[in-house]
Amino acid sequence: MDTMRDRFAPVVARLLDEDPRVAVVLAEIGKDAFQESAHAHPDRVINVGIREQLLVGAGAGLALAGLRPVVHTFASFLVERPFEQIKLDFGHQGLGGVLVSAAASFDWPEGGFTHMSPGDVALMDTLEDWSVYVPGHPDEAETLLRHAVAPGTGSDTKAYVRLSVQANAEPMPVDGEHFLTVREGGRGVVVAVGPLLDQVLAATEGLDVTVLYATTVRPFDGAALRRAVGAARADVVLVEPYLAGTSTAAANDALVEVEHRVLGLGVGRGELRRYGRVDEHVRAHGLDAASLRERIGRFLR
Fold first, then answer.
1. pLDDT-based confidence at 159, cuts 50/70/90?
2. Which CATH number describes the domain made up of 180-300?
3. Transketolase-like pyrimidine-binding domain spans which residues (predicted)?
4. What is the pLDDT of residues 185-225, one digit of tens each?
5. How far apart are CA 231 and CA 110, in angstroms?
């Protein structure tokens, strides 16, 4: 199976061909995948070099000119390093665009902590009116990329698409808006985000819980959570592939009129200095199926 990032360039290349408003801005990373597109659309495929603040600023400049910019690099260089440019160049000026990251929380451990970004979604959450998409499969990544870039979403909409090498075995029918009900039960609700769905399904096998699948995490589908919880007291577990607790406030807001408890599971704040492999990071943060089963079961008890 190809990865989400493998799918990214061909999808956006087709969008460049289909829509003369679409433009791509790169900072060296990913440029080889857009060589043909750069020849076909030299004015709409721009590589600014290793200049991440300029990367975001140039994307905003293209938006000012009426284009729909797709801005791409690793998450730590796309969200954390040029955060001021995201806040001011896009947000303050009221411009739309699509930020597409790679490497997720720890997808390239060999790159070290400079290439890890478990806090990206939490950081984006401090800004107004950004949609955040976290696909769990390459097919879902294609759907959500098209949803984010499509002219029908409006040229002033702002979207962040978070790609990962981690993926579920099978795609789900995502629509860019709603949570999906994957399993129903009566003892609690577990919200699995993006590539953690398979781990959550394995962890909750045989447990009497509802499992919701989230790939659009902002706006947060509070209505789906309320329907799953019902009118009675509720226990809710959020399992996110980024900083633990990122969506607990959103869940609390959705359930403000219902007695409830919320447990936020995700990537811890501590830096793991023995970089190792992706699967070792997953286990170290307690996001493998065995660890999740123990943590979810203890909370529900």
1. very high
2. 3.40.50.920
3. 2-171
4. 999 999 999 999 999 999 999 999 999 999 999 999 999 99
5. 47
Distance CA 285, CA 301 (A): 22
Token match 């399993």: residue?
Answer: 183
What pTM did the predictor assign?
Answer: 0.96
Please state, in angstroms and rounded to a whole number, the distance separating the CA atoms of residues 21 and 143: 19
Does residue 255 register a pLDDT over 60?
yes
Task: Kindly state which CATH superfamily the domain 4-162 is placed in.
Answer: Thiamin diphosphate (ThDP)-binding fold, Pyr/PP domains (3.40.50.970)
The amino acid at 272: L
Summarised one tens digit per residue, pLDDT across range 104-140 is 999 999 999 999 999 999 999 999 999 999 999 999 9
Query: Which residues of the chain does CATH 3.40.50.970 include?
Result: 4-162
Cα torsion through 14, 11, 218, 246, rounded to 10: -150
Every domain of the chain with CATH number 3.40.50.920 lies at 180-300
Question: To which residue do tokens 């460049």 refer?
Answer: 16
DSSP state, residue 299: H
* Cα within 13 Å of Cα(122), Cβ side: 19
What would the 3-class secondary structure string for 107-139 be?
A: CCHHHCHHHCCCCHHHHHCCCCCEEEECCCCHH
List the beta bridge partners of residue 74.
102
Residue 155 pLDDT class (50, 70, 90 cuts): low
